[in-house]
UniProtKB/TrEMBL annotation:
Keyword Isomerase listed: no
Pfam families: Response_reg, Trans_reg_C
Residues with PTM 4-aspartylphosphate: D73
Name of the featured protein: Response regulator transcription factor
Domain OmpR/PhoB-type: start-end pairs: 150-247
Keyword set includes Phosphoprotein: yes
Keywords: DNA-binding, Phosphoprotein
Feature: DNA-binding region: 150-247
Stretches assigned to the Response regulatory domain: 24-138
């Protein structure tokens, strides 16, 4: 760790849920000192924090606590974080997940994201980095707060409601993860405009993900399977330039 909660001289505005209740975060890591440090930092944000040191406990707490975000170590003593995520997802929840691990290879990052995780932090890290990533995930989740002046985006027969986080095409609902939603929102806010992978990384992930533009390709493929499946395509690849969304037909 490179900082403590009190080290930040300028705190970002507090995040609260739409109903005014506290944001709930579950931190899962078998290093007790690390979970306690993260707990302290997140409580400093005004959030309700629970911790777990193994996979079985994490799944149990997730089902009872129903966190708004999970910080999840991949290496745990009983079963790994990917299995924890799979079990949590099996309960029908789309809680945003920030993977926390000492592993630093692209394969490990992609494995975590493919399993349904929304972001990834590699140890060692700063507490500010973890808090910033969590704030981003929570803002993009179905629980956030910011009210748009015009909450419904429409491109062709595709609609996205920024208040209710409902997405539909041709009137048929489409279920998206928090990151998929943010990616689609960015595309829909820029219809018929070619967006580069670098632009998408900067806007959707708020950092360059180590320059790994393959993450953008991965999430574009996820969106295509949900938005374009069995329909005229709306998400287009502009070779050598990026991606563009436009009305079909």
């Amino acid at each position: 760790m490179t900082t403590t909660p009190a080290a930040a001289s300028h705190r970002a505005p507090a995040i609260a849920k739409g109903d005014g209740s506290m944001v709930r975060v579950l931190v899962v890591d078998d290093e007790h000192s690390l979970t306690e440090l993260l707990k302290m930092a997140l409580k400093y944000e005004g959030w309700d924090v629970r911790t777990a040191g193994d996979g079985a406990t994490a799944v149990k707490i997730a089902r009872e606590f129903r966190p708004d975000a999970i910080v999840l170590d991949i290496m745990l003593p009983d079963f790994d974080g990917l299995e924890v995520l799979q079990r949590v997802r099996a309960d029908g929840t789309e809680t945003p997940v920030l993977f926390l691990t000492a592993k630093d290879s692209l394969d490990d990052r992609i494995a975590g994201l493919t399993a349904g995780g929304d972001d990834y932090v590699t140890k060692p890290f700063s507490l500010e980095e973890v808090v910033a990533r969590l704030r981003g995930l929570i803002r993009r989740s179905t629980l956030t707060l910011a009210q748009a002046k015009d909450p419904v985006l429409t491109v062709g027969d595709l609609t996205l409601d920024e208040d209710s986080y409902e997405v539909a095409r041709g009137g048929e609902p489409i279920e998206l993860t928090a990151t998929e939603f943010e990616l689609l929102r960015y595309l829909m806010r820029n219809p018929r405009r070619v967006l580069s992978k670098a632009q998408i990384l900067d806007r959707v992930w708020s950092y360059d993900f180590g320059g790994k533009e393959s993450v953008v390709e991965l999430y574009i493929s996820y969106l295509r399977k949900k938005v374009d499946a069995g329909r005229a395509p709306m998400i287009h690849t502009v070779r050598g330039a990026g991606y563009m969304l436009k009305a079909a037909g």
